[in-house]
């Protein structure tokens, strides 16, 4: 089994990169070695797994089925290894997580540090991602868990934990709007807006609300990261927005004010911890999911500071 997994990894790398040469570079082998492995497996399966095109190596229908099976086998093997280590009393392993930028700023690093107090040998890989990117990473077995805001309904994934989260307005501390304890979105739209790009759920939520307001938004800056938005509004009259989780730490670091949007705007959606349907998580990942869930549960009763 383990020997076969090493061979199958060659195919998985080609499928991810679409190139024999790039896969060989990642595997530190020659392209001819990768091609031989592909040919051997195709002979065993009795079907072509890749279509050789001018743009690269494309999976056939049979190839998509086989690669999906490989990834499920690899995930199951990780889970079994984790269980064996648990039986032996060894608390180690690796956890791969995709999360929203808001969660990555404070909440997730705190959860990792807390978890490693009792699981010091567990290593983490954290990727910030939009909801679509995070779900793709789950489906392709690139991450074990995903913590994202407002994910779309997908049959391939299941919710481990969910809590409601507001979108809040963020501005410099002496901004005229900072004098108010809470705001309507239309008040924010009287000023320039700095927004995350449309790949993020929070942006799509804001767009849907702004579509019902007669004043057109004056969007002066878009970015795929909150950091440049926070730095920009600190030195301008612009207003930006972020998900509630972790915003106080971000605002304190940039010297910014945070104000809730009033309930009438319905600027809220669930923050959801997701895992892949039908996949048995490794012990370490399952325990970390429990740590995240407890942390999220503690946030339910925390008020949003003005």
UniProtKB/TrEMBL annotation:
- What InterPro entries has UniProt attached to this entry? HTH-type_LysR_regulators (IPR050950), LysR_HTH_N (IPR000847), LysR_subst-bd (IPR005119), WH-like_DNA-bd_sf (IPR036388), WH_DNA-bd_sf (IPR036390)
Protein name, please?
LysR family transcriptional regulator
Q: Residue ranges of the HTH lysR-type domain? A: 1-60
Signal peptide range: none
The entry's family comment says: Belongs to the LysR transcriptional regulatory family.
**Assigned keywords, A-Z:** DNA-binding, Transcription, Transcription regulation
- Keyword Ligase tagged: no
Origin, by domain of life?
A: Bacteria
| Pfam families xrefs | HTH_1 (PF00126), LysR_substrate (PF03466)
């Amino acid at each position: 089994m383990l020997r076969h997994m090493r061979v199958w990894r060659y195919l998985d790398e080609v499928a991810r990169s679409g190139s024999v040469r790039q896969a060989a570079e990642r595997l530190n082998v020659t392209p001819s070695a990768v091609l031989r492995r592909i040919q051997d497996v195709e002979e065993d399966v009795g079907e072509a797994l890749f279509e050789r095109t001018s743009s690269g190596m494309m999976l056939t229908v049979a190839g998509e089925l086989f690669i999906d099976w490989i990834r499920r086998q690899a995930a199951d093997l990780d889970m079994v290894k984790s269980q064996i280590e648990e039986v032996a009393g060894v608390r180690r392993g690796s956890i791969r997580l995709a999360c929203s930028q808001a969660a990555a700023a404070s909440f997730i690093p705190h959860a990792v540090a807390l978890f490693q107090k009792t699981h010091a040998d567990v290593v983490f890989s954290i990727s910030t991602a939009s909801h679509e990117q995070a779900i793709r990473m789950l489906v392709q077995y690139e991450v074990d868990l995903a913590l994202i805001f407002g994910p779309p309904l997908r049959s391939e994934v299941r919710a481990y934990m969910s809590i409601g989260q507001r979108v809040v307005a963020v501005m410099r501390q002496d901004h005229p709007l900072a004098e108010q304890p809470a705001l309507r979105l239309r008040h924010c739209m009287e000023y320039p807006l700095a927004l995350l790009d449309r790949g993020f759920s929070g942006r799509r939520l804001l767009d849907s609300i702004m579509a019902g307001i007669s004043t057109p938004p004056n969007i002066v800056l878009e970015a795929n990261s909150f950091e440049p938005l926070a730095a920009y509004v600190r030195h301008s009259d612009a207003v930006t927005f972020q998900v509630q989780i972790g915003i106080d730490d971000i605002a304190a670091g940039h010297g910014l004010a945070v104000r809730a949007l009033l309930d009438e705007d319905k600027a809220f959606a669930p923050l959801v911890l997701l895992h892949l349907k039908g996949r048995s998580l490794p012990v370490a990942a399952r325990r970390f999911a429990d740590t995240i869930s407890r942390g999220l549960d503690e946030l339910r009763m925390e008020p949003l500071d003005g």
